[in-house]
Amino acid sequence: MVKKQRNPGNTSRRILDCAETLFAAQGYSATTTRQIARAAGISIQTLQYHSAGKKNLYRSVLERSVGEVTDLVNRYVQKMLDQDLNDVRVLEVSVKRIIDEMFDLLHGRPNYAALFFRQWLVLDPELRAVEWDRLIPVLGQWSTKIQERLDPERLRGMNLYLFFLSLSWMYWGLFVQPHFIGGVLGVDPRSSAFLSILKEHAWEMTLRMMEQRTSVRAPPLAKDKGVPRKSGSRARKH
Question: Which domains does the chain have, with CATH numbers?
Answer without folding.
Answer: 9-52 (1.10.10.60), 62-210 (1.10.357)
